[in-house]
Design goal:
Layout (H helix, E strand, L loop, with lengths): L9 H21 L11 H10 L6 E6 L8 H24 L3 E6 L7 H15 L4 E6 L9 H8 L23 E5 H12 L7 E8 L5 E6 L4 H8 L5 E5 L1 H4 L1 E3 L8 H6 L8 E6 L4 H15 L5 H18 L5 H17 L3 H4 L3 H9 L1 H5 L4
Length: about 375
């Protein structure tokens, strides 16, 4: 297969001139943070792996992208995989890794052959003694979590592990491992190459009851009204969901979309997926779908999540069937808080967000179903 590459590897060349410590300083200076949801400073994560002594180190590119409503990484892999691959090579050079992995979402397998060809050509062009292996995920939402990815790559069941130790200290086969999202690694290459790279820019996955769904780039602080002007909707939009784990929020047209403002509403921005919900939908119905998703995707390792997601689904179903009372809503809220506070990993710790924010901002939707 003959594929035209879109990279000259100038970012990698510049990284080599800077040296590992220079790369870390550059990432910190440019404000590079994780784009998978946690927003952890990338330079700080890499520094831990660099300074941890080991005979072997690893790099994992998280291309699992299993969060409903999120599809930005797929676009990068299709349109600009070269820059992502260059970011992986820069990461490997910086921490001293020889083996790298791309954990590719199972549903993206149709992108694998072309991606493998690009990897082969770019590594050859780079001159680095590095390998990049594609690991195909099997559709488990939990494997978007870094310790679950590590377990899966090692051939184990995708279960979240207790932290610490954290992956940059002890990851794959007990060795230092950095796990970064597709968009993060793409940003690494750009931030090293371009002095005017803007750390505030984010890729937004926009979908739902809108006429123009898609991936759009906006700076943090963009007003909700501008996003609504872009996506447009036939009916009045009453809510936005930040993916299954991010929770529901009322539409506030003058609100600036920032981490802080989203958190004030009890929501989590995650990877900036925004699913718009119009006034023809009841939040309880949407919550019921999310509850089924969490019940199915729980890995089952910890009891609060394994059993709690089932109890939440049962309670939501009770509301939908008109069999609940106001007291049942109080119990539903209590269950959601308990699951979040006692679960092992991010899946369970976010499994009640859609309920807590739904009850906070759209309690009238719940009251419509009460007997």
């Amino acid at each position: 297969m003959q594929i035209e590459l879109k990279t000259s590897l100038k970012a990698l060349e510049k990284a080599k001139k800077l040296g590992p410590k220079g790369v870390l300083k550059r990432l910190d200076k440019m404000g590079v943070v994780g784009r998978g949801g946690a927003s952890f400073p990338t330079g700080r994560k890499w520094k831990i792996a660099l300074e941890t002594s080991s005979d072997e180190k690893f790099v994992i590119c998280n291309a699992d992208e299993g969060e409903p409503g999120t599809f930005k990484d797929k676009l990068i892999i299709k349109k600009n995989a070269e820059t992502m691959i260059e970011g992986i090579l820069i990461a490997a050079y910086t921490i001293g890794a020889k083996r790298c992995f791309i954990y590719l979402r199972g549903e993206y397998d149709h992108l694998r052959i072309e991606l493998e060809t690009k990897i082969k050509e770019i590594i050859k062009k780079s001159g680095l003694a590095v390998t990049i292996e594609i690991i195909r995920g099997a559709g488990a939402y939990i494997c978007g979590e870094e310790t679950s990815i590590i377990q899966s790559i090692m051939g184990n069941r995708g279960h979240a592990m207790y932290k610490p130790p954290y992956p940059p200290v002890e990851g794959l086969w007990g060795k230092p491992t950095i796990v970064n999202n597709v968009e993060t690694l793409t940003g690494v290459s750009q931030s090293i190459l371009f002095d005017d790279w803007d750390s505030s820019l984010r890729l937004f996955s926009l979908s739902g009851n809108v006429e123009n769904p898609g991936v759009y780039e906006f700076p943090l602080g963009v007003k909700m009204s501008k996003i609504l002007d872009v996506v447009r909707s036939k009916n009045k939009i009453k809510a936005v969901s930040f993916g299954c784990f991010g929770g529901f929020m009322k539409i506030k047209k003058n609100m600036e979309i920032t981490h802080e403002n989203i958190c004030k509403e009890g929501c989590q921005h995650g990877a900036f997926s925004m699913i718009f919900i119009d006034e023809t939908h009841n939040i309880v119905d949407v919550s019921y779908t999310i509850a089924k998703f969490y019940t199915y995707e729980s890995c089952g390792k910890c009891t609060p999540c394994r059993e709690g997601t089932i109890r939440l689904l049962e309670r939501i179903k009770q509301v939908k069937e008109g069999k609940a009372t106001k007291k049942d809503l109080e119990l539903l809220k209590e269950f959601a808080e308990h699951v979040q506070e006692t679960s092992l990993c991010g899946l369970g710790q976010s499994a009640g967000n859609y309920i807590l924010t739904g009850l906070k901002h759209f309690k009238s939707d719940y009251l419509e179903y009460l007997k």
